[in-house]
């Protein structure tokens, strides 16, 4: 794939065939330590021409710190326009994209507790994926028992920006590798105070255990800008991974998309998403 570093104007112009963004409400009680039932919601991008009789690949897409599920589609509606154009121009196949919220409530949005990034694994597995894939037509075909969700992991991806990038590693990759085959960490791995050696070891361990259990990585598409505040730690962690394992092969199941002059902003993250959707779900 030929990488670009500026979103073409044509992808920011309204197109004829537009998808829709729908609200999905659900209840989660997976946070046992809080002994609470939480009422939450996510936004779901449904591509133009959605047909319940067809099967669609699905991407779960996480926001960053201090914001909510509104980030990708509501706060930045041009993201929807980019998706519409990509599908209309056949840059990628039509897919369903879900933007859940990491936080528990409006007040919780202000927490600095990064344990949310790992604890989200429970809600993701027990509430969000089964709820969404029961309602929408994915390769799970409405059968959301754990065995079938594992069986259909090749049609499921997880990506996120900044704190959502940490969530991609911790909630999806480390803890739900059996449910996802495609990953897009955009801007970071463990944050400025993380243990780089520990993160590299966890990545290697996840890959090794996955292979042992017959679960291959389809692709890890890391992204960052060389002026991004999260670039140095992300680069260092992934370099440490390469020193420890040969299971990541550039161009086959791994790449690190680097935006020259790119910073920690939505312009970069939309470019990350644009490229990720050209890699995810593509058979080698």
Shape: globular
Question: Average pLDDT, to the nearest integer?
Answer: 96
CATH architecture grouping: 3-Layer(aba) Sandwich
Total discrete domains = 1
Distance between the termini: 13 Å
Named CATH topology: Rossmann fold
Tally of helical segments: 8
Task: State the total count of DSSP E strands.
Answer: 8
Low-confidence stretches: none
Beta-strand content estimate: 15-25%
Order of helices and strands: EEEHHEHHEHEHEHEH
Largest beta-sheet details = 8 strands, mixed
Structural class: alpha/beta
CATH superfamily: Alpha/Beta hydrolase fold, catalytic domain
Q: Using only CA atoms, what is the Rg?
A: 18 Å
Helix content: 25-40%
CATH class: Alpha Beta
- Enumerate the strands of the largest sheet in spatial order, edge to edge or round the barrel: 1-2-4-3-5-6-7-8
Per-chain topology:
Layout: E1 20-28, E2 38-46, E3 57-62, H1 71-75, H2 78-88, E4 95-99, H3 116-135, H4 146-151, E5 156-161, H5 163-174, E6 182-186, H6 196-212, E7 219-225, H7 231-244, E8 254-259, H8 266-276
Parallel strand pairs: 3-4, 3-5, 5-6, 6-7, 7-8
Antiparallel strand pairs: 1-2, 2-4
Helix pairs in contact: 3-5, 6-7
Account of the protein in words:
With 284 residues, the chain is α/β, with parallel strands linked by helices. The chain has one domain (9-276): Rossmann fold. Helices cover 34% and strands 19% of the residues. It has 8 helices and 8 strands. It has an 8-stranded mixed sheet, sandwiched between helices. The mean pLDDT is 96.
């Amino acid at each position: 794939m030929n990488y670009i570093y500026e979103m073409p104007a044509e992808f920011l112009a309204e197109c004829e065939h537009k998808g829709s963004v729908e609200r999905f409400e659900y209840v989660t009680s997976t946070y046992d330590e809080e002994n609470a039932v939480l009422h939450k919601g996510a936004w779901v991008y449904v591509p133009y021409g959605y047909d319940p009789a067809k099967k669609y690949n699905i991407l779960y897409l996480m926001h960053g710190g201090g914001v909510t599920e509104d980030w990708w589609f509501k706060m930045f509606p041009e993201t929807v326009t980019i998706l519409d154009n990509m599908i209309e121009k056949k840059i990628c196949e039509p897919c369903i994209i879900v933007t859940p919220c990491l936080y528990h409530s409006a007040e919780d949005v202000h927490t600095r507790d990064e344990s949310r990034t790992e604890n989200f694994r429970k809600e993701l597995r027990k509430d969000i994926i089964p709820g969404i894939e029961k309602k929408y037509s994915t390769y799970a075909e409405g059968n959301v028992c754990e065995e079938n969700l594992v069986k259909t992991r090749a049609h499921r991806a997880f990506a996120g920006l900044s704190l959502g990038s940490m969530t991609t590693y911790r909630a999806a990759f480390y803890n739900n590798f059996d449910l996802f085959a495609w990953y897009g960490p955009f801007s970071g791995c463990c944050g400025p105070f993380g243990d780089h050696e520990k993160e590299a070891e966890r990545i290697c361990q996840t890959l090794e255990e996955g292979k042992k259990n017959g679960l291959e990585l389809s692709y890890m598409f890391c992204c960052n800008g060389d002026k991004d505040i999260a670039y140095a730690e992300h680069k260092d962690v992934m370099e440490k991974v390469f020193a420890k394992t040969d299971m990541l092969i550039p161009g086959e199941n791994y790449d690190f998309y680097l935006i020259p002059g790119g910073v920690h902003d939505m312009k970069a993250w939309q470019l990350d998403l644009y490229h990720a959707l050209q890699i995810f779900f593509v058979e080698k």
